[in-house]
Amino acid sequence: MDDASGLKNVIPSLLDNAKILDDTYSLACTVKNGHPPSNLQLEMPAFDHLTEIEISNIVNFIRTDLNGKKPISILDIKSQLNLCKQRNER
Amino acid sequence: MSKVIFVLFSFCLVYSCGTDNTPLPVLGKPKIKDGQEVPHYIPDFSYLSQDSVFISNDFLKKHIYLADCFFTHCPSICPKVTKQMLRIHDAYKDNDQVKLVSFTLDPKRDTPERLKMYGDNLDVDHDAWYFLSGDKEETYDLCFEFFITAMDDELAPGGINHSGQIVLVDQEGHIRSFADGTDPKEVTRLLKDIKKLLIEIEAKN
Predict the structure, then answer these.
(1) Would you say the ipTM is above 0.85?
(2) CATH architecture for the domain at B24-204
(3) How many Å apart are CA B156 and CA B146, to the nearest integer?
(4) pLDDT score, position B7
(5) Is the CB of B79 less than 8 angstroms away from the CB of A40?
(6) Rounded CA separation B2/B7 (Å)
């Protein structure tokens, strides 16, 4: 949706979404590797063609513009991406 | 000066609202029935709902309804249209006169069971919003009667190319209004048209 509000339980909202704002959850890895389908949620495709800078821009747009949270540094995003590359985390 | 413009503006607003009593038109090309030219109407149909009961246009004659064509795996416009259908659902779920009807273009995957789950995930009242499945080709033809184009297209996201209108049908099966379901402003107008049609029905009874 244009306003990032999702569609009930079919498409997750990007606003006030506890899961994606949790510091232990790497949104950067989700952007890069996608997300498998669950119940009726469609699969989120992987965006592994994006550069680390592009991924960090997306993650921080969701954090700051949409949710008023502090941004994550590009160095932290880099280390997150390295970790999920190793674990092939989805 | 600005005051004058404001007064003029509010006058026009009130004036145009007050005179907008023209009934909604019957849309579509006339058809030939028993050798007579008659206004366009939705042909007979009978489809399985998410509760595995048949919903026919005859059953819907007791109600006015909003129709769209979609499928649950649709990655493109369907979620936007569904969000607008949800707006209409939330406004009219407690009014038995108004029903919502969504025809799946992908009956192979969208079984009644899956459609029921889809409705649950949208928090909808299953007696207010029917998710219907039936023969695929027949559904494509029926959607066309609602002015909705639908065709198989390998290049389209999800494999089906289709348009996202939400169509308002009266108790006689005539199309009285429609909106582009991807445009919230258009749907705001459609909500007004629903109200108008309900007033028209009330005046008849």
Answers:
(1) no
(2) 3-Layer(aba) Sandwich (3.40)
(3) 21
(4) 55
(5) no
(6) 9
